[in-house]
Amino acid sequence: MTVEEFNQTVDLYADNLYRFILKNIKDEDKARDIVQDTYEKLWMKVSDVVSTNAKSYMFTTAYRTMLDLIRREKQQGDMSEVKMSNLGHSKQYSDLKEILNEALNKLPEIQRSVILLRDYEGYNYAEIGEITGLNESQVKVYIFRARGFLKEYIGKMENVI
Questions:
Q1: Contacts of residue 161, Cβ cutoff 8 Å, sequence gap at least 6
Q2: Dihedral of CA 61/67/70/74: which sign?
Q3: Helix segments in 116-155, DSSP class H
Q4: Where is mean pLDDT largest: 79-88, 100-109, 134-143?
Q5: What's residue 99's pLDDT?
Q6: In a 10 Å sphere around its CB, with 0-12 CB exposed, 13-18 middle and 19+ buried, how is residue 50 labelled?
Q7: Residue ranges per structural domain of the chain
Q8: Cys-Cys link to 107, which of 50, 58, 87, 111 (CB 3.0-4.6 A)?
């Protein structure tokens, strides 16, 4: 693809690409960013992309970029929906060990056991399974749930210190 063909592609498909992304994510700024990223990726591959395939390449790239953004935001979560008072506790502590022990004591017994075995003692999942009589996938689930609770209970480090 030549520079002229690239410029024609931008002129022909920029609006369609923007509308396609905007309908999916409903955020104008993010849609503009995705379109911009798409054209940047096309420019980086300008010598590899045939001008007749440019439209499908751009829409595919934009769609995948949009999915990546959605996944990233889903993992990060939307902080506007979170009430900061629910994330931590109201007491001010200076001893992190005391806070961790308090949080661990609030866990169900099996979750506390697997967390202690994994994070404090350094056992692997199979060894923890043998010790507790659980299978490896159950161990992983209990550890995941316990870490989620601890993360929510302790909250931000600013609330702790």
A1: 93, 94, 96
A2: negative
A3: 125-132, 136-154
A4: 134-143
A5: 79
A6: exposed
A7: 3-81, 84-160
A8: 111
Which of 3.30.565.10, 1.20.58.220, 1.10.10.10, 1.10.287.610 is the CATH number of 84-160? 1.10.10.10
Task: Please report, as a single letter, which amino acid is at residue 142.
Answer: Y
For residue 55, count CB atoms less than 10 angstroms from its CB and return exposed for 0-12, middle for 13-18, buried for 19 or more: middle
Would you state the pLDDT for residue 121?
A: 75
Q: Which fold has domain 3-81?
A: Rna Polymerase Sigma Factor; Chain: A (1.10.1740)
Instruction: Indicate the average pLDDT of the chain.
Output: 80
Least confident range of 25-34, 60-69, 74-83, 131-140: 74-83
pLDDT at 142: 94
d(CA 107, CA 115): 10
Are 95 and 81 within 8 A, CB to CB?
no
Rounded to a whole number of angstroms, the CA Rg of the chain reads 25
